[in-house]
């Protein structure tokens, strides 16, 4: 961290300020130029609050050179993290570290028949995980809010029947006791900075699929991952799902550059959600291919057995047959990236 | 709501589709032009999910004419809502309906001495409410996270000592049991779409100060208010606190137009947070004046007895003397707007 | 300017790099810490290209401490610039330096009758300048494109008749020869970074009204002003006209903070365009008041004698009577700011 | 186009309004529901100004069903446009319609030696076109502004020597007379809505490479293409070059979805600029692959023989050897898309 001191600041005060910084556990190096004094902070600056320093009347500018995250930082963990999740019959699904996973299923669990039907179908097409929302964040209180605990039960039944591990969203801490048999807990975009939730998930051992916030930066996503990891849970899967831009043709804008950016900065696996990114089912295959060649470690795709009748997100859901053809189309691209398909077998 | 039907759609299917809409409790009016069929939906369309309709293969475009919120909508409640909060000695603070309130205090409660000192000082300057964070949403897990339950205790002590009602942020449902003596519960920008929290707050009777999300629209803020109100709690105070834009000079960008926009669309009071909007203490007075003349019903201002040593947000906090001079400066503008200052006396 | 050097860079190469910087006319101060070498550049760093430095393999980060603009910078010109424009009968309109001006007129000049009618009317209400577009930037080639040179003629006729100096937009250098009798040349938001145009306007002596680009920052606006000023033309009026955000209720979002921000960074006058900012005529008065109390040096307001029939921007234009009442409403706010109304008398 | 009429509007006025619309050459269909009157406009609505209609006091909402562009619209030109440019020795470079082109070269032409050296090198690696800036839009007037007319001369010399057709940017109409031997004229992002320039380019027969504006939508880019095409020049190549978002890790954000979006809406070829999109040379290959599999018809890539010494954009330029390896890496992806490499042979 570099702190540029305001011109004309009394040397004595600057030294006192530097001393107060050293008390926070970093070393401070002075550079006193003719017209500019610069302090260089060395050591564990992640715990220094840059914003708080800005309030000091001696400070002209504070610049972080090192990233403010540690556990999520590739500098301190050069090897890719590979997250392993038990699948049926002793198998294992792996995310990251050279393995490619596809998480598929409906936006919302709507009925027993619907979720079992889709689960069988995405399994047959080669999905690694079943997704499905039981608790649904909807912008209108008058929209379908998900089946809640009953939805979770149905997901677990589908898991039992197909052997597919399940991924489903938690909306609030108060739901956590229901997630005991869930394999991967999803944190939605709107909760990316729900720090109370992140901290608590840091204490549970389960893998967390952390979605990027609607207007969050790569750095902010990694800081949210750091919250979970700081609590001791290193099993975080990052998810790029499109960001808010001025473009209205698509629901959001897939930030394909976030894939290499996240992977360079962090060792955590990165999956992509082409369904929410575009909001248009016809664009899912194109964006999936782009995500694979950009290095994604997996995809999370909405599949519905009757998109036109879906209670939510029908416009962006694939039919089972479109999903089958997507899986076929991706095969060669995944191989070209030198990745192995991981679906628990 | 207007639904444009795709050209060439079979008339029979369109009629079946219209019937399915009528089953949702609205009337459907047909307009069959030479080349364009348009359905006009009349009735309570707030409960119709426009996105879900878009997935239908017959639909070209869905356009809402009516707003999707009802309880927050001025059309159905033409008069301003005035929220009344008990103050000490039988007094009452009112927000909205011609009354102007100032909520002041530190970003974080840091110590007994600090909060009591600031509380006395803002009271003396004429503040209506004391604010202070006990639970703090911080982007880094290594930054100061607030004093938690102890912070709440200190706030309540300050309330007791000064008689100022208190406003403080809830970060998660699990904290709600601690908020029994809090006067106004604040929902932070990052929680604006924490729908589980909003629903539960809809069941508690307390006034809610709902902050606009970092990249949320006026319409989305009103939908979040609708969540609280749909649960039966009509005491919602809307808060414009700056939105994320490309400008980096200020921390956020105060959307001054949101004040008249919200007031035209809704009957709920609107307060402005110039401290978070700018992130610069020297700009707080200017933005406060702008907010008052634009029609704001109140302000929420960060005040710290030692901004340079503040554990958070020092850069944007006013000193007690700067706050006193702000209150003096605003007086005539508030009067020119025909509003009465409400501070519990 | 501060340059953080990558860890492990060979000292010899760093010295060679520092020497190459000194050849560009700045002094370089070294700070060699245990783990971080920092170069501090002192002198006229405005001409150092920070981006180009970033490409050097020794460089970790480049941070500007000084602003990259000089002529527009208040540091080097502490006093407000006041721009003087001749008005009829030997009068003078002043913009900035304690004077407040209102520029009013239609979006487009549509006919002789229209522009003369509006000119008389805004003059009677106290406007300082007449505005009107002859060359119109329209997003569709099929929309009305302005009357062009004929429109300019009509504006000049209105100037002659009313004595109001005129402000009108140039869209391209090729039109400049027609602007000989125009008093203030407007550069539209879409041309804020038309650097060829800015350079040429730097060579003409006329005052330039420079509008902020749709997603430009305060710093970028000042860099564009610097282009004009670097050519020798110091008569630049900055114009905040709303920026693009995710909000859709208003056409753009008025960045009211840009007024104090620009005035702190620069000595140039700042005017505000509430008509384009909101795109809603009913909001113009509210935003105008906010702009005045935030310190604006003037306003540019769309007025049309028949807004419903306007060939462009009817939705945001005031009728002549609404303009009259706006001028009355603003009077006391302008006085409270200690400014004098300047309208050439 | 659909116009929702405000409730309670007098039927007589609505009929008069409808008649005024019919005079503009469209048919108007009435739908009078119990509580909502809707007008459906049929015919060539591209020439109807939706914004102007909004100003009418009878109008609640105006919704375009048809796109406001015609010549750029795939609906009216179902087949892909393929643009043919003469290359040396009677060869031809084709852009679009199943052909893939790579445009490569430095950001700025800096010297005879530099441009000839790079031209030879990119030709050897298989580039279809040479790019190089003679007129450079720079945010600071103190940055290198390009060699101007001399730079163009050097480009033409490089064209003569290598046979590569050239692509270079025009910044202003006044430069057009110098572009007689340029093969493709580039319009930069900052000029995407320089309508005067676009109109004039519509009158010259040369292919235009039109870059998307920094915060422009897909629809706005197509409207700008329409400006060129409305003048009679159908040879427009669209270019996605990254949009402004809140992400700071990359210079801009590549909107990979814009490729399928533009291709679905329009028949014009779409090329991608991964260099400006990311601003990071190490990311160029990854984004190029993503662009190819998303369906791009070509790439425009910055290559410099000494990126560290480049006078502009060094940080994002590839070295000649990195470009060679990029071309090798892309080969199989282009083939998998069923496209032919077009480089004039």
Outline the structure in words:
The structure is a homotetramer of 345-residue chains. Chain A is α/β, with parallel strands linked by helices and 345 residues long. Chain A has two domains: 2-63, Alpha-Beta Plaits (2-Layer Sandwich); 83-341, TIM Barrel (Alpha-Beta Barrel), CATH 3.20.20.70. Helices cover 30% and strands 19% of the residues of chain A. Chain A is built from ten helices and 15 strands. Chain A has helices at residues 11-22, 50-54, 112-124, 149-162, 195-201, 218-230, 258-265, 274-278, 284-293, 320-336, and strands at residues 2-5, 27-32, 37-42, 59-63, 83-86, 92-95, 99-105, 129-131, 166-170, 184-187, 208-211, 236-240, 270-272, 298-302, 340-341. Chain A has an eight-stranded parallel beta barrel, surrounded by five helices. In chain A, strand 7 (99-105), helix 3 (112-124) and strand 8 (129-131) form a beta-alpha-beta unit. In chain A, helix 3 (112-124) runs parallel beside helix 4 and helix 9 (284-293) packs parallel to helix 10. The longest helix of chain A is centred in the last third of the chain and has 17 residues, at 320-336. Chain A is elongated. The termini of chain A are far apart. In chain A, 62% of the residues are buried. The model of chain A has no long low-confidence stretch (mean pLDDT 93). Chains in contact: A-B, A-C, A-D, B-C, B-D, C-D.
